[in-house]
Amino acid sequence: MFFSDPVKKLRPWAALHARTAYKPVTREGHGPDRGSRFNGSPFLADGEAWPACTVCAKPMPLFLQLDLDELPGAHAGRFGSGLLQLFYCVGDCEFEGPDAWAPFDHKTKTVRVVPADAAGAIAAPRDVGLEAKPQAIVDWRPHSECCNSEEAEQYGIAVDYERERLGHKTRFRCDALKIDTGWISQEDEDRLNEQVFNPSGGDKLGGWPQWIQSLEYPNCPECGARMDLVFQIDSEDHVPFMFGDVGTGHITQCPTHKHVVTFGWACT
Questions:
Q1: How far apart are alpha carbons 181 and 151 in whole angstroms?
Q2: What is the C-alpha to C-alpha distance for residues 93 and 224, in angstroms, rounded to an integer?
Q3: Which CATH number fits domain 19-146+199-266: 2.30.29.30, 2.30.320.10, 3.40.50.10260, 3.40.50.300?
Q4: What's the pLDDT score for residue 3?
Q5: What is this structure's pTM?
Q6: Are 73 and 118 in contact (CB under 8 A)?
């Protein structure tokens, strides 16, 4: 059957590659010591100092604490066990070096997994240079999404461009599913990017990354494998901080070495 609508044509591919992402539902307050939250005080092991920036030596605010043992849906147990924590310096230290945004430049950030059996408690509040009320994550709201068109090329989508003979036209093909949109207009391409190639912005657990520039998955330093998205943190969503010029950050993890986690961001 022939469909003139490119969205309908690509739905069989989208159904194969859709992922469930979860938007956090929050309530003001810390919640349980080991609970998931944005901002506020972290759970620290007995005798452990609050993580500090190695450039300015000041304590870094907690951006996110995620209880890996209490995640929804297919993410339950996927990322291991314990507390995933991200601390990030909000001073001018990110300008001390050109790679402060890079995943494995940890001078101005700490991202780690605290083992589930670690003894300790929630730390006393500190002046960390970020005025943000703690927000406990009390629920998760699921939705389905697919990757952007650039990443889709790694999953069977071929993209052709015609800018001279036909004007601004684009064609999407998937030979394995015998899909061919034919040459489509910029308007139809925009609809595809809204309805098919549509990773969501904002803070979310799992799903597909919303890349601001090109694909920027880091590789595990222990085995070289491409790391998986755990959590996306967007500028000025639950954490009142902007990464560069309205940038988006991603916590990623090695699929085999669960202790290898990192954080990187990009902006336009």
A1: 18
A2: 29
A3: 2.30.320.10
A4: 44
A5: 0.93
A6: no
